[in-house]
Amino acid sequence: MYDRYDGLIFDMDGTILDTEPTHRKAWRQVLARYGMTFDETAMIGLNGSPTWRIAQFIIASHQADLDPYLLAAEKTAALKEMLLDSVQPLPLVEVVKAYHGRRPMSVGTGSEHAMADMLLRHLGIRDYFDALVGADDVERHKPEPDTFLLCARLMGVEPTKCVVFEDADFGLQAAKAAGMDVVDVRLL
Fold first, then answer.
1. What pLDDT digit, counting tens, does each position of 140-155 carry?
2. 73 backbone dihedrals φ, ψ, rounded to 5°
3. What pTM was computed for the model?
4. Which of 88, 106, 123, 179 has the fewest CB atoms within 10 Å of its CB?
5. Catalytic pick from 3, 6, 11, 136?
């Protein structure tokens, strides 16, 4: 089905791994310490963003005086404690398995590189990917194209010959800005 592409790029959270509910749970736990909450709809709109950017949004919406990087670090620590027990692959992982060894593949995620690597290894699928690009590997994050452009470069594939699998609007915008075809997995 995707044979016409020379490289396949996958977002991680909500695309190949079911991590979104655990991300929300970690945010609720950390924000409760500060008497804050988050708007579920607004959070969905931020999917694909690095954790510090989401923290920035939450802090601004509460007009709180917190460091977004420290709040993001707290959330990441809480997430690590919960995620290994709860993470599950999503059905799209079957595409990954089907193209393993047939096409170069990479993961381009808004999660930190180490966290993504840990989760993919935990599920035994890290070695299916030739490259992994996390939020801390690029300066400009989704919706900017940098994450996916770096994936293509690391795979040795021209961006226009790649397809990106995404579940978030920022990621769809990033793939299009990179000149890549994109599959909105929410429509599969």
1. 999 999 999 999 999 9
2. -65, -40
3. 0.86
4. 88
5. 11
